[in-house]
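Ticket #215: bound-state structure for flavin mononucleotide.
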Amino acid sequence: MIRLDLSPDQLLSTTRAVRKRLDLERPVEREALEECVALAMQAPNGGSVQGWHFVLITDESRKRAISDLYRKSKVKNDPGSTPPEHQAMMDSSAYLAEHLHEVPVLVVPCIEGRVENAPFIVQAATWGSILPATWSFMLAARARGLGTAWTSLHLEYEREAAEILAIPYERVMQVALIPVAYTIGTDFKPGPRLAMSDRVHWESWHQAAPGDQAD
Ligand SMILES: Cc1cc2nc3c(=O)[nH]c(=O)nc-3n(C[C@H](O)[C@H](O)[C@H](O)COP(=O)(O)O)c2cc1C
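RESOLUTION: The complex was predicted; output attached.
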């Protein structure tokens, strides 16, 4: 099994949304996936309830059925509304949509509970009890030479996906769909991000970072 020689900072800054560089031909070992899940289950979760579940799909017919739901959602996007700086991402997303059923493994992280009508704090605690684990799964995958991409489009048809995967929809929410495959090459760069000064608020929302001068 592969172990990339990445520092924690390199791992955190190079775990990217991988779509075109997913190796669709190379199988992913069950052992590697189980290691990633074991690490995901070390994530924080509200009250240590551990209501998380991970549905790992390798079966061709189920992968195709879930991918069809993903694509059904995708066609509702309006390509005309894409800003130019997002065009490469849209191309890459379109590639993933087209090939999703060919990706060796699709992972659906789930959490017990449905929050549509729950108080805000319950909603926050529920999402917050599965999203860190999902990201940990993706980081663990990257450390093993595996690429992932966080996706959400199939959730428009969550109920239909629940039927395909026999997930008890009334009491369990799906939160994402993560394609997993070995990456073509293992070198990834940090992603383009806003300047920290645009997004950091010291002490209060109105306070600029120490040292920043007002115009
Ligand atoms: C909540 C969430 C939903 C996303 N949904 C999709 C999706 O449905 N399809 C897709 O191709 N990428 C999806 N992405 C991936 C984002 O497009 C990607 O993380 C973003 O462009 C940054 O990419 P980078 O980390 O490689 O820089 C999603 C990411 C998040 C966090």
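RESOLUTION NOTES: The beta strands are 52-57, 105-112, 146-148, 172-174, 178-182.
TICKET STATUS: resolved
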